[in-house]
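Input record (one chain):
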Amino acid sequence: MERDETLFAQQQVVRLQALLEASRRIHSTIALDEVIQTVLQIVVREIELTGAFFTNFAHTYGDIAPESASDVYSRFPLQDSEGVVFTELVVISPADRILTLDELDFLESLAMQASVAIANARFHERTVQWQRIQSDLDSARLVQKSLQPQVMPNIPGYRLSTRSVACYAVGGDYLDIVEMPSGETIIVVADVAGKGLASALVGTSFRSAFRAMANSGIPLVEIATRMNLLHFNEGAESRRRYVTAMFVQLDPGTDTMQVVNAGHNPPFLISGNGSEDDPARIQRIRASGTPVGMLPFSTYQLEKYSLPPGARLLLYTDGLTEVFRGEEEFGEERLLKAFQHCEAITPEDVLDTVWNTLKEFSDEPEQSDDMTAVVLLREG
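The corresponding structure, as predicted from the sequence alone:
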């Protein structure tokens, strides 16, 4: 009796050692393919089976012939952390080879270890993929920032400042400044529908087309019209990513500016004449046509404004007005008030004031939309 108990205990120790060694080998790698192949190899070699494979995976080990009466197929389910079966370990043995209780117990224990190892390997793969995506997004963010104006142009009698903050790694707001040989300066603030990488790609395409046209000396209305048709003809996906845009062409020689508003938020122009609260000195430049790319044959109108000494212009995207405190939106009126009553004397200070006002108003934990603004001041 004692010898039987001793023999049984020794067998149990041997089985436990075999399972521990198998577990060590399975968990020694984090590569999914290696984990699966190691499990199959252990199964076939340790129990001396014909072959083995996993359902839902392409890996096999041993002799995997079409199922026939001469073979016995035994299945051991693998479950995830929530108890859902995601694959089965299938072992093949000859018809005259009956798996013992110890072997069945070994295979069931091995299937449990394989479930954990495969889950860890899949998590590692997802982590590596995410890190790769994050690296690509970081690079895209740097590229997008490099395409924004790096140095403000020196415009006689004027001061200019810009700010653009994406809510994700890259954004759909577009900001550009182009100095013309004539001494005029074209400023563009645009907003691609949506956010994130897709909108950023559309914004880059928009930039290429705009710069090509601006540098060729095409009038502002013609630029907006051609870009609208070009964008529309790029297909259904581009139409869903239509662009609201504000084009401004500043002529410091005559202290005037020409503007085309393609479905964009109305910029604020405050003249330097009259009292601070005089409504006549505040102008909102409304849209004269649809957003770029929304309709194939949109027409746009050119408007011209004088810029007397002390005039101030604010161009912005809807990320500045669509800031919330609970259900209450910051809105256009609050933005105008912050801009109108700002006592700052530099455009950088004006932008600081606007951003601080938005921060004080909002109770949102994170920025929910891309935010871009341009402030132009005429000295005097």
